[in-house]
Amino acid sequence: MTRPTPPWLVAGASSLGLVLLVGVASQAVSPDVAPATPAAAERLGEPSPTPSAEPTPEPASEPTPEPPPAAEPAPPPPARNAATPDLDVSSVLGPPPGPQPDQRPERTAAPRDRWALLVGVQDYRPPTVDTIGSAKDVRFIADALVASGWRADQIRVLTDEQVTGRALREGLAWLAERSRPGTFALFHYSGHVKQHGGQSESLWPVDRDFVRDREVTAALSRATGKLWVDIAGCEAASFLDGIPSDRVLFSGSSKAVEKSYEYPPWGMSVWTGLLFDLGLRQGQADADGDGRTTIGEALRWSTYYAQAITLGQEPHGRQTPQVAGDPVLGWTLAAPPA
Questions:
Q1: Cis omega before residue 315 (within 30°)?
Q2: Where in the chain are the domains?
Q3: Domain 10-44+87-325 adopts which CATH fold?
Q4: Model pTM?
Q5: Each residue's pLDDT tens digit, 61-79
Q6: Comparing C-alpha atoms, which of 263, 270, 173, 180 is closest to residue 216?
Q7: How is 201-253 classified by DSSP, letter by letter?
Q8: Distance CA 156, CA 160 (A)
Q9: Which residues contact 178 (CB under 8 A, 6 or more apart)?
Q10: CB 242 within 8 A of CB 303
Q11: In which band, very low, low, confident or very high, does the pLDDT at 51 lie, cut at 50, 70 and 90?
């Protein structure tokens, strides 16, 4: 079936395999769920942030061209809700976050001591419904890490057909083995999250060899260095149990009882687009204006605007990102803690 282009938010990375085409009269759903009622098209509005352009591969046999002049960053998102423009967001969420005295790490990890496992499933096997932007999420993050001085050969990227249950488990083991005192590791997942009767959740590989939350926790508990775990999927906070600590930072795109959304014009999830693109790479989260966007600034800014632009979504409601664990948030991607 040809899927119509959705005009705004798509409820993606769902625990139920659900893709809600907001403002469109039909939905494409997995057999796992019943169709949901879409929001009214006339209530939708376009947000103002502009995503970064996709990286263009350099020709193999030609010299690297001079970079073009830096473009002006896109304006920050307005403090209004894209699904219900007349909703007074500030009365619900208060003002956008301002500067805070984030603690800087005592030491930072050199590029040789940084490791990342980035997993994104966009093209699922039938009958599971595809996501809109999970593969682009991880490609964008990989590009942002390299631009911040990370070594490309220490970033493992798994997308689409590569993301089997076995490959995901092996990737988690690979990352944990390399996470030792003095290192910094990042695990990011974009894709569907499977619920099992409200008792547990799983990361959702293409072969439906579900990786249970307890498996994720057990694998990552073998890491002994600094670690950041970021989940962009519905019910993301379901993975909070056993992961956050004074050494491990956890961030998830929504509460354990909420959906997370994707924005088709970006080709990315709302959470990843806000956090890694607009917030960190474009610097819109730089609350104190010092030209150095910390992870604390980016997480607070993205948490606020993820709620602001999804506050009036129907029928699932807003997504509320969750952050827990390591309180040291005054670091950047170019100088992560060790």
A1: yes
A2: 10-44+87-325
A3: Rossmann fold (3.40.50)
A4: 0.80
A5: 444 455 555 555 555 555 5
A6: 173
A7: EEE--TT---EEHHHHHHHHTT--SEEEEEEESTTGGGG-TT---SSEEEEES
A8: 14
A9: 115, 154, 185
A10: no
A11: low
